[in-house]
Amino acid sequence: METISFTVNGENITVNVESRSLLVDVLRDQLRLTGTHVGCDTSQCGCCTVRIDGSTAKSCSMLAVQAAGAEIQTIEGLAEDDNLHPVQQAFSECHGLQCGFCTPGMIMATVELLEHSPIPAIDEIRSGLAGNLCRCTGYVNIEKAVQQAASTMRANRDAESTPEVPQ
Question: For the chain, what is the mean pLDDT?
Fold first, then answer.
């Protein structure tokens, strides 16, 4: 057993793990963050996608010890207080999910996509989500959700940067 520490969704965590433990298993089984799903165990489907130090990673193909000292964000860490992240809200409103199994990974990949490309063309959306598979929706509503989230996030940024005019 090894003792490792990392930050998960803003909380400092120390856990004992076997050196062969996958990050997805530690997140789900030890930390009870079950929003990160195991779909294929080969990093093909993207259901296990989390963010590590600001970049997406497939937690089913990463050892937990490799994440020592890292800042990890899971789907549970996106919402602030009782407010869904704009990407989560858009997936809900646009029906960008059906069974929901792939949704956490799709959302985490979308967050990164929109950080790098705030106004993505449809080809950029498809490329940005290429590592995530959905077996139910046909992707049309997922693409709409990404576009809506991008629009909402731009509007939020514009509102934050607009100075208030005294009356």
Answer: 93
